């Protein structure tokens, strides 16, 4: 593992743990941002088809124009209730509280004037009678701040609340300080009632509604919850707890998930006026389609701006309060609640750990330029995941802490990549400027995030060359300075040829050159590049020797060995003194092959591992199958004589040599010797002499024949 990956992994773990700590102990700091992201998801989702079983009777501007300013006389409200009942309303909920007597009532006016009139209409009595004769659930409000009490009784409801597993001495349910009820004559004639408070978050947006409130040591339902309870027809409601607080409100099989305070996160169906709205004046004047009311849940409230019942929601800044109750009832009846399970902390932490793992994998292996393309996909994928969890599985996961983690991990990886890239570029310039061609250096600089410096096993082609009889040459020249000049004149073009063929100079060992191909950069047909370099060097050496002869300098003869195989490549050495190099048995084998040139009288020997992967055409011939000192496995070696195809003379020589070698391998030593002698006579080379001597030996001692020739010295 390289240092960059190690840095990314270690810092990512530290940052992840820090953000998880912040999530667990400083959640509220970023909670407002989390809510804004959820609001955005609601807006992106847009309008959803609401329940057709819920209808809103709107005290709208039209109604105010036709029936007068609010508050209306209560006989008008009573008429609306009767008309709704006659249309077949299943249940009616009032988002209105009648906390004072109707000042427009004739009976009240006459009483205040001291006039007694026995049959004077009492509008409060008329409304109370209508409430008792229609399926109406009254509304009222709780005051959570002001305890300068107005005298009044607590609301009575036909339901028992049972708290299950409530932690002792802990109370999570929201507490009210006073209740603002309907006047007794109206309140006492109702089947039931529920509070219609909506409590906005600190930013003024209503996202949750309390389903239950504690007041005077008793629990009371919201208008929405009470309407649904009345529809279900139960008289016991269970409140389920864990040690963290309320988890749900249960009515028979209907389990309504809540937060720890007994609040429901409302799954809004869309912007304002998503539900069916009917004008209250049309109901009053009986100018409406009864089919729109028959069997429906009917809510009476207002959207008129002057009546101050407009709220801010994720969709709108002016959202009728009555429609919040409609959304709540819709959620409860159709069980489309958004849940925040008691195991949500574990889920959020697992999400963050998963983000860390995925990010570490992606950020540590992806090049920076690709990372900029991946980031929108990563963020988009994460947003889609949260979106699907919210709207398909109705589970609200935390958004801001995982998002903060993702941003932090990306920023950290970007910073590490940036400084690592700068450092690697400096190392590349330092390590490879003299080892490879400028083109290869440029390629490395353009991809510094690659694993070029990592220690790994890789197939490479290794090259060794050595000057023959260098000691004799140094003695002939005598002057060390002139010897160095001669050596430099030889080395410079040899190195240039290797570099021009995209080879890497590993080191100079006295008068020897070690090089390799396919590292640090991958190179297609690296075997050809190595053999081409060797042949070009031999051609260059011929030109150099012509110059040396003219100048009275000794000529230079070299041997070259090339082998292809797996080797360990990478940055190696001691702390502070290291270098990019290659090691392994195959490197040693290439060195041994170079040394065999002296024995066979050749200049360029390659292994069959190299020859078998050549793509270009070369003039080659098999030399032998050998087992070099220190190796357990034999290798077939070849001499490379040049590019392309041989001329007629050389072709005849090679064909005859091939026949001779075939006879030799088949133990026909007499015929083999005959052919080798013919070749040797026309071309007295060391190779032919070797095989003639071997044939003579095996003619005398055929049982000692071994097709694999073993070298006992280097």
UniProtKB/TrEMBL annotation:
Record-given protein name: Adenylate cyclase
InterPro entries: A/G_cyclase (IPR001054), Adenylyl/Guanylyl_Cyclase_3/4 (IPR050697), CHASE2 (IPR007890), Nucleotide_cyclase (IPR029787)
Coiled-coil ranges from the UniProt annotation: none
CDD domains with a match to the protein in the record: CHD
Compartments (UniProt record): Cell envelope
UniProt keyword terms in alphabetical order: Cell membrane, Membrane, Transmembrane, Transmembrane helix
Domain Guanylate cyclase: 461-594
Family per record: Belongs to the adenylyl cyclase class-3 family.
GO biological process terms held by the UniProt record: cAMP biosynthetic process; intracellular signal transduction
UniProt cross-references to PANTHER family, sorted A to Z: ADENYLATE CYCLASE, TERMINAL-DIFFERENTIATION SPECIFIC, ADENYLATE CYCLASE, TERMINAL-DIFFERENTIATION SPECIFIC-RELATED
Pfam families to which the protein is assigned, alphabetical: CHASE2, Guanylate_cyc
Highest taxon of source: Bacteria
